């Protein structure tokens, strides 16, 4: 039986330009893919309701620009994130090498309470271009193990490969983060009404 309380989870997607961040988000939320590339300006977000372990969860997925000139916009968009998704292109070694920088950028901008245990998920996108692969699965898997055993998926936004599975993992990891925070922020019922200290704001 589903829990009556809704959870709003803020998810940030980071990565170099053209790795497929927007395409992954659109494939997951709208089941749609387009070959036309249009760079994200600043940031945009979509929402989707999902059931995770009998809990109704609203994912607020933020797609941020990969261009360096927009990174200074990060603080407002990163604040309050429950999970960070880092995306690289399996046909681009540089995009994989930059994952570490994106992780450092996120931790610096968002300043989470417990950076050592903050949930990150890594996606190696464009699996439909296997013949052009430059980043070995084993190499990426090892990097994720060495950096806190991050969940890792290889995906194709174009062919919808592992996209739903990846975002299920993202939602589950984000929800676990919220649960831990709520242990220190109990709901308190007051005579004048209900006050929930653990309630998350809808946006940044």
UniProtKB/TrEMBL annotation:
A GO molecular function held by the record: GTPase activity
Q: Per its UniProt entry, which superkingdom is the organism in? A: Eukaryota
Asked if Protein biosynthesis is a keyword of the record, the answer is no
- Where is the segment annotated Disordered? 182-204
Q: Which UniProt keywords apply?
A: GTP-binding, Lipoprotein, Nucleotide-binding, Prenylation
Q: Known NCBIfam families for this protein?
A: small_GTP (TIGR00231)
Instruction: State the family named in the UniProt similarity comment for this chain.
Output: Belongs to the small GTPase superfamily. Rab family.
Q: What is this protein called?
A: Uncharacterized protein
Query: Which organism was this protein described from?
Result: Blepharisma stoltei
Organism lineage string: Eukaryota, Sar, Alveolata, Ciliophora, Postciliodesmatophora
């Amino acid at each position: 039986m589903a829990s009556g309380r809704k959870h709003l989870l803020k998810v940030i997607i980071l990565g170099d330009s053209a790795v497929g961040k927007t395409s992954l988000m659109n494939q997951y939320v709208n089941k749609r893919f387009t070959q036309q590339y249009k760079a994200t300006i600043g940031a945009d977000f979509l929402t989707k309701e999902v059931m995770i372990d009998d809990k109704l969860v609203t994912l607020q997925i933020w797609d941020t620009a990969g261009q360096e000139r927009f990174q200074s916009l990060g603080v407002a968009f990163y604040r309050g994130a429950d999970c960070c998704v880092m995306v690289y292109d399996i046909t681009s070694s540089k995009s994989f090498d930059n994952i570490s920088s994106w992780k450092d950028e996120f931790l610096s901008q968002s300043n989470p309470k417990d950076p050592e245990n903050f949930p990150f998920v890594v996606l190696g996108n464009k699996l439909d271009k296997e013949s052009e692969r430059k980043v070995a699965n084993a190499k990426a898997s090892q990097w994720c193990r060495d950096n806190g055993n991050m969940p890792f998926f290889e995906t194709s936004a174009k062919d919808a490969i592992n996209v739903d599975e990846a975002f299920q993992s993202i939602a589950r990891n984000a929800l676990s983060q919220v649960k831990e925070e709520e242990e220190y922020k109990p709901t308190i019922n007051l005579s004048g009404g209900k006050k929930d200290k653990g309630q998350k704001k809808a946006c940044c």
